[in-house]
Amino acid sequence: MGDATAGKSTYDKSCASCHGTGVAGAPKLGDKAAWAPRIATGNDAIMQIVMKGKGAMPPRGGCANCSDDDLKNVVAYMLKQAK
């Protein structure tokens, strides 16, 4: 999918404010129970949500200056924490 190590810095800058605390129903980083059904949908489905947004999460997770590779890396990082 992506480089989980490279994804940590993007997570810290762009994702932690919601996924660190669970704001507006965002699954918290490392919450295996919350992430399990999302992981079950597969990486492509997760990336579609990241790209288009869902609920309170805006398209591209609100990171307009993130490249597609940055987003793949941050998803890899977040999923690694939930496995």
Rounded to the nearest angstrom, the radius of gyration is 11 Å
The biggest beta sheet is recorded as: none
- Summarize the amount of helix as a percent range: 55-70%
Structural class: mainly alpha
Task: Set down the secondary structure blueprint.
Elements (H helix, E strand, L loop, with lengths): L3 H16 L12 H9 L2 H10 L15 H14 L2
How would you characterize the overall build of this protein?
The chain is an all-alpha fold and 83 residues long. The protein has helices spanning 4-19, 32-40, 43-52, 68-81.
Summary of the model, kept short:
With 83 residues, the chain is mostly helical. The chain has helices at 4-19, 32-40, 43-52, 68-81.
Can you tag this structure with a few keywords?
83 residues; 59% helix; mainly alpha; 4 helices
